[in-house]
Specification:
Strand content: 25-35%
Structural class: alpha+beta
Oligomer: single chain
Helix content: 10-25%
Radius of gyration: 21 Å
Number of helices: 8
Largest sheet: 6 strands, antiparallel
Shape: globular
Distance between the termini: 48 Å
Length: about 375
């Protein structure tokens, strides 16, 4: 590192954080990245750029994706055994050109691991390099979802079935692609297996909406609390658009065994002869949708909210989701909430190169979703 200048995060005055972070995150020497898609972003005129990273975890290591001017050029796991260490992320760049560097957490927070964490500690570049002010984005979009929004399955072929972070790649998912198409600042909140009211297995604790107001409260324990996961997130007036992609796991749970909570109470989901949820389950989902939309609206008063679904086919819930949205719009007189069905992987993926791993949407489905969502957003302006 002799020929490089090193900078703590709070020394990079033009840096910006993509995604959720604690209040004043960029004022600290190190930056903690919580959610998939959260990133440190800065602009340089330099020939060489390095980053100093570190992590803690029990089983599932975090991965980082490096983007230069919006295109992914590198992806690697962060090893906890190495402590703080340096990685070269760009070399032989044109020193006369302003290059936008994005250092992105490519994998989701691991809610089952008390120690899971990722830190960006320092950035270094050649001594005659300089930081530049990046151009402002055209708008701001927030994405809320599950494994599809995490980017699970975007690495590896259809035969790969292990649930490991290696197969997660948020950098190439529909959310990041949509943001790039629209020149948008983006924030992502997603958790594999979680839903509106319950998770893939019917677990009532695996619901994203109850964590929406916090920085990253899907994580737990004293160590995570010390990082600020339970801080109220500062929405700063909210986003221009909020895209919600939830319901796939709520739908899948109808085919699972009843879920039993810690007290021994059993929760059984059931479907009627018309292939719709029972009245009890439909009511719970509709109320969950209405409540979540109301909360999203309170935090994003000027946003156009778009509820999307269908990248994995939903056999049971589409009509229930639509009913929840319409009842919310009527009850709260909110005309800026919309529904958009996306192309299903079962219909559009035909070759092995179009498919993803772990039975999840592959690159083609994510590309089509990004095109459809961005076109829809353009039509609203």
């Amino acid at each position: 590192m002799e020929n490089l200048n090193q900078y703590k995060i709070n020394q990079i005055k033009s840096a910006r954080l993509l995604g959720r972070g604690i209040n004043g995150a960029l004022n600290n020497e190190s930056l903690s990245l919580f959610w998939a898609g959260s990133a440190l972003e800065f602009c340089v005129k330099a020939t060489e750029v390095w980053v100093n990273v570190s992590s803690k975890y029990d089983t599932h290591e975090p991965w980082i994706a490096i983007q230069v001017n919006g295109r992914t050029v590198n992806r690697f796991m962060v090893e906890k055994s190495l402590g703080n260490y340096w990685v070269c992320i760009a070399r032989n760049l044109n020193p006369q050109k302003e290059n936008l560097i994005t250092i992105m957490k490519d994998t989701q927070p691991m809610s089952g691991e008390a120690n899971h964490s990722l830190f960006i500690n320092e950035v270094a570049m050649n001594k005659d390099g300089e930081f530049c002010k990046p151009k402002d984005y055209s708008c701001k979009i927030e994405f809320v979802g599950d494994s599809i929004t995490t980017g699970e399955g975007l690495v590896g072929g259809p035969d790969e079935q292990e649930w490991i972070t290696q197969w997660m790649a948020c950098n190439d998912n529909y959310a990041v692609r949509t943001a790039r198409i629209l020149d948008a600042e983006f924030s992502i909140m997603s958790q594999c297996g979680w839903g509106i009211c319950w998770g893939w297995d019917g677990n009532r604790n695996s619901c994203i909406p109850k964590h929406y107001n916090k920085v990253c409260s899907v994580m737990w324990g004293d160590y995570q609390n010390s990082l600020g996961v339970n801080e109220d997130f500062d929405f700063k007036g909210g986003s221009d658009f909020v895209v919600i992609n939830l319901g796939t796991n709520d739908n899948g749970a109808f085919s699972q065994q009843p879920w039993i909570d810690e007290s021994g109470k059993e929760y059984k989901l059931s479907v009627g002869d018309d292939n719709n949820p029972s009245e009890k389950d439909a009511t719970e989902l509709i109320e969950g949708i209405k409540s979540f939309l109301n909360n999203v609206r309170q935090k994003n008063p000027n946003a156009k909210i778009i509820w999307v679904w269908g990248m994995i086919k939903l056999q049971i819930l589409p009509s229930t989701i639509l009913k929840g949205i319409e009842l919310y719009k009527k009850e709260f007189d909110d005309k800026n909430v919309f529904a958009l069905e996306l192309d299903a992987m079962e219909d559009v993926e035909h070759t092995v190169y179009e498919k993803g791993s772990r039975g999840h949407p592959g690159p083609k489905t994510h590309c089509l979703a990004a095109e459809k969502i961005s076109d829809f957003i353009k039509s609203l302006n």
